[in-house]
Specification:
Elements: E1 2-11, E2 14-24, E3 29-33, H1 40-47, E4 55-60, E5 63-64, H2 70-75, E6 78-81, H3 93-99, H4 110-119, H5 121-125, H6 136-148, E7 154-158, H7 166-181, E8 185-189, H8 193-199, E9 202-207, E10 210-216, H9 217-221, H10 224-230
Parallel strand pairs: 3-8, 3-9, 6-7, 7-8
Antiparallel strand pairs: 1-2, 1-4, 4-5, 9-10
Helix pairs in contact: 3-6
């Protein structure tokens, strides 16, 4: 579904991605692992056209994404849930969700709201509440729900567990699995490597902008380097 080839991305003189190449198949859930600064978030931002690569190629179902703007990427079926949630704090929960469907001209969104409220019942309870007054976990639910309102075929998730209590992390990850079971392909960036590998099919390990390891989730879980660097030995 997604094919990234020889991607080079710079922040001024800093070479952030150094020839990155990987694939994500239809229906897969794939994780990108690595330390801070490895290039994980940069990869997601480049796929969603928030950053422009200096060279390389990104294809979605065989179609090149070169030259497209972020809103055009969304219309092709890619939704990006960014690190830090980035909700609109002064808007209500339901207003935030409706912004996720902005690209769907003339289409009804009632069924999609019902779907989000089924996945996240807490949001339905707080649908008229200002998003800025939600707890951290509720804001993460809202950020994911807003992404789903675009009816994505590919969902990019950046650090969904950041700052959440362990019980909420388990809840969020269970919901991510449910979204994947419903047919949405997922590319997940996550510092909690153990949790990411527990739910994903495959993974790639990044170091300073390049992939140093790849494999099925169980293979990476058993890899000595991954265990020592990301799984606590």
């Amino acid at each position: 579904m997604l094919k990234v080839e020889e991607l080079h991305v710079y922040y001024d003189a800093i070479h952030a991605l150094k020839g990155l190449s990987f694939t994500v198949a239809q229906g897969e859930m794939v994780t990108l692992l690595g330390a801070n600064g490895a290039g994980k978030s940069t990869t997601l931002k480049t796929i969603s056209a928030l950053l422009k690569p200096r060279s390389g190629r990104i294809e979605l179902e065989g179609q090149s994404l070169e030259g497209l703007e972020p809103h055009e990427i969304v219309r092709l079926g890619v939704a990006h849930v960014p690190e830090g949630r980035r909700i609109f704090p002064r808007l209500s929960v339901i207003e935030n969700l409706r912004t996720g469907a902005y690209s769907r001209r003339g289409s009804t969104i009632g069924n999609d709201l019902d779907r989000v409220f089924t996945l996240f019942p807490r949001l339905k309870e707080r649908m008229r509440q200002s998003a800025g007054t939600l707890s951290g976990g509720e804001q993460q639910m809202l950020a994911i729900g807003r992404g789903l309102m675009a009816r994505p075929r590919l969902l990019l998730l950046d650090e969904p567990s950041m700052g959440l209590a362990p019980i909420l992390v388990e809840q969020i990850f269970a919901t991510i699995q449910e979204i994947n079971r419903e047919g949405v392909t997922i590319l997940l960036v996550e510092q909690n490597a153990a949790m990411a590998l527990a739910i994903c099919h495959r993974g790639y390990v990044l170091e300073t902008g390049a992939i140093i390891l790849e494999g099925k989730a169980d293979e990476l879980t058993g890899n000595d380097l991954v265990r020592q660097a990301y799984l606590g030995g």
